[in-house]
Amino acid sequence: MRRGFKADAERRAAQVRIELGLEGHAPLCPWKFAGHLKIEVYEIAGLGLDPSDLEQLTKTDPNSWSGFTVEEAGLKGIVLNSSHSQGRRASTLMHELSHHVLRHVPARVDIFTETGMLILSDFSQEQEDEANWLSGCLLAPRIALTRLRSQGKTVTEIAGLLGISDEMSRWRVRMTGIESQFKYARR
Amino acid sequence: MALPIEELGKKVAARRSGTGIRAAAAEVGVSPATLSRVENGQMPDLETFSKICTWLKIDPGEFLGTRREEHRPPVVIFRKDQAVSPKTAMSLAKAIIATQEALRAKAQLGP
Hints:
The complex is a heterodimer. By secondary structure, chain A is mostly helical. In chain A, 53% of the residues lie in helices and 10% in strands. In chain A, a hairpin with a 2-residue loop joins strand 2 and strand 3. In chain A, helix 1 packs across helix 5 and helix 7 crosses helix 8. Chain A is globular and about 55 Å long. In chain B, helix 1 crosses helix 3 and helix 2 crosses helix 3. Chain B is elongated and about 60 Å long. In chain B, 37% of the residues are buried. At the A-B interface, helix 3, strand 2, strand 3 and helix 4 of A face helix 4, strand 2 and helix 6 of B. Strand 2 of chain A pairs antiparallel with strand 2 of chain B.
């Protein structure tokens, strides 16, 4: 990740909350943020797919994909895997929104062939790392984590309060160094 | 005439004949598991596909075919495993088309 990106991501997370009239430590709903960015969000179960396709994507092989973004007719839409938990879908959505906020440009390929081959655009590892980090800051900014940990909230309680998965909560508490900070303060 | 996708796995198997999967994967620049999945007919992601075509010395266009929509093709970005089964890929393709239709309908309605 480029130098200064992490600090910049925290500043962006704060700026977004200001734009949305939220306090710096308040939860940020990714669905509301998508509305703010004028991006449509769909659940795969709401697209009117044939039952066999829906079953393939949500029951037979639900863990092979999390979501995708489509640009069409000047609009951008994000589709989420309805079979995933609310927290996981929040992470997926915020990750996709982060690519948009960061104006990442993917490699682009025309995708369909008569043989049914599916070749998709994707981002570089650096872009993925940046989107991961920014989405974490947007969902769980350092200021919110510090506040909640100082109140003695557990990782699971923080996840519930911020509307994120336990995994995201644990990752953010660890990666921001807040856990070590509190351990040191208690010495 | 585009090559069918099933040919990709067969071409990989033919190209590495006599070479172990690990050595071949190292030459391609992907993991042995990824190369093995492609050899068994799974769909590669863009980066893997590109590396395999380079290794096979094949123009990716030979697999991509020529069917194009009249309008600008969509940009589709995925969060998915590096390789998905052909059945999942087909269902995802249909989901992309459904999403395009939903977005077109939304664009016609206006803000």
